[in-house]
Amino acid sequence: MEKLLEDIRLPRMVPVRQTFPRELVEDIPAAIRAELSKDSLAGAIRPGQRVAVTAGSRGIANIPLILREIVSWVKGQGAHPFLIPAMGSHGGATAAGQLEILADLGITPEAVGAPIRATMDVVRVGTSPGGHPVCIDRFAQEEADAILLVGRVKPHTSFRGPYESGLAKMVAIGLGKQVGADICHSGGMEDMSARIGEMARVALASAPIVLGVAVLENAYDETMGIVALPGSSILEEEPALLELARANMPSILFPSCDVLVVEEMGKNISGTGMDPNIIRRHYMGNMVLGSLAQRIVVLSLTRESHGNANGMGNADVCTRAFLDRIDFQSTYANPLTSRVPASVKIPMVMETEELAIKAAVKTCWNLGPGGARIIRIRNTLQLGEILVSENMADAHLGSDPKCTSERP
To answer: Residues in domain LarA-like N-terminal (predicted)?
Structure first.
């Protein structure tokens, strides 16, 4: 490989700061207490109740603190909280795997002040209008008097609609465990949002889901908003929260490049490892996201992914180090549930980061006279500071006030 790529010259990279709106919750405990004390939620949790509080698999900013404050509030109502993993088939579709994911996110009994009970067993609570069985985590349905949802509302990586990533999806898929995830994905992605809404509506009517706490994040992966809702209002209120989250997503402000280098991908960053909304590429034809790069290189898989490389199908080239971290049993649980095998197609493998980037450049078409235009990001969550090749900086900086650079 070295011989084939020895003539490829990589450009000098320039640090660029991207500026986005930065609304921020300064005092998270106070915000949570204020939301849960709203008149509309009075009496939602009663003394003596056993309360199942959900915890998902995403790397949500401040999530141990958020859950700890919610647990404290539940205890303050005289109730008895416990946490349950609500993450569909993640963690290799095993209870032990889901507990391991929570621990990596800092969610432990000691950190949140409540026990965590994990099972993949579910109870069927009804049937959606589309004929889909609706299931709920057995501990939540049979051993809790009330369920309190906690989740981030955010645009999904693979479908569009009024319900994407959020509380409704946590009800239909997260609480449904592997069985619910498999059922919800059985009809494909095209009508996924509608299917989530239908299944969540049945669950909300049949299970004791009394409260939902929606978390919103800004473009800097920081807590932007915390909104508590009665269970009966979740389906009505969530679409507006989704649009607010969409308006505050980060992006790569450069219109295009030849090669996008992503230093790390992983399940703690995005369900598809790299958020297609950011990289503007999707292995599924139903998602038209524009075009950012001819080639995408991924250099590493996060430790928190536990070997789950779902989404690597969006990359063209990876490193040997990336490949060596893959746990194929954990990885393949995703496409077998979502029915999207393209998500786990293995990219071209190169021994080093330099060779991986050179291979991506080598396979580009119609490079301009200034050479390959390269953008390098840490991951698709952290886009405030990126690197761009000098030829791109010369062409773009100065024309967009949201992009600035202090060149060395």
So the answer is: 24-187
The predicted-structure confidence for 267-294, as pLDDT tens digits, reads as follows 889 989 999 999 999 877 655 556 899 9
pLDDT reading at 255 higher than 80: yes
Place of tokens 């998902």: 56
Residue 101: alpha-carbon gap to chain centroid: 13
Chain region(s) in the chain for CATH 3.40.50.11440: 28-247
Q: Dump the DSSP string for 238-290.
A: HHHHHHHHHHT-----SS-EEEEEES-B-TTT-TTSS-HHHHT--SSTT----
Q: Which fold has domain 28-247?
A: Rossmann fold (3.40.50)
- Using the CB atoms, write b or e for 185-199: b if 16+ within 10 Å: beeebeebbbbbbbb
Q: Residue 293's closest CA among 317, 257, 264?
A: 257
Q: Environment class of residue 36 by beta-carbon count within 10 Å: exposed (0-12), middle (13-18) or buried (19+)? A: buried
What's the confidence (pLDDT) of residue 289?
58
